[in-house]
Amino acid sequence: MGIAFGTQLARHVGMKYLLLVAFLVSGFHLAAQDSDLNFYLRSGINFNTSSLGLDSGLTSAGQILNQEIPNNGYHLGFSLREYKNDGQFLALDAGYHETSFDLVGIDPNGNPVTQTLTSQTIQAAISPGFRLFRFIRAQAGINCVFQLNEDFQSTFDSYKLGYRLGSGLDFGNISIDAMYIASFMSTDGTFSNIPLSSNTSNYLLGLSVKL
């Protein structure tokens, strides 16, 4: 899976996305001269609470789709946290996120049919926050999203900006985080001639290791 993921990521991610992440990292480096800067690798589960607004519709292939099933996914990436002496911190999170939807219905012969619409994104977020007792964290910030999946992007021209709210616990070199990420507004689109409206939201549960 790692080789396939790396090949797909290299094919789809534009240079502008990598330059944005590099710019954010360099900004952290300059801002952290008089503070404690920590680097983490993280991964976890994405609980998909998004919706597509599917009621019922006839596709171009003569299928009737009348049910949407959101599937959970995963995320992989890194975090940078700049800690100040007064308990405040600034976090940069960046990585790959994947979730999907199954659109279920029947074909012209009355047989069950399922079409899958997958969201594959690079996400980068800046979140100011505060820390209590050196192991409890809370943060809120802005989330930038870059859709990689061509089918999803052509359907919705997916949202580019949202927000995230979360908290975390630090145990030595291990961190556990719970986050809620969402778009500021829904995005309308059409899939197989069926009008949809994407309202994006996910709960993230992640584990990070400090390097």
Can you characterise this structure?
- Residues 1-15 and 28-33 have low confidence and may be disordered.
- Helix content is 17%, strand content 61%.
- A hairpin with a 2-residue loop joins strand 9 (187-191) and strand 10 (194-198).
- The two termini are 24 Å apart.
- With 211 residues, the protein is an alpha+beta fold.
- It is elongated and about 65 Å long.
- The longest helix has 17 residues, at 15-31.
- The strands form 2 sheets. Strands 1-3-4-5-6-7-8-11 form an 8-stranded antiparallel barrel.
- It has one domain: Porin (Beta Barrel).
CATH architecture: Beta Barrel
- Spans with pLDDT under 50 lasting ≥5 residues? 1-15, 28-33
Distance between the termini: 24 Å
Kindly state the number of beta strands.
11
Please tell me what the overall shape is.
Answer: elongated
| Highest CATH level, the class | Mainly Beta
Q: Remind me, CATH topology?
A: Porin
Which strand order spans the largest sheet, edge to edge or round the barrel? 1-3-4-5-6-7-8-11
- Helix and strand run: HHEEEEEEHEEEEE
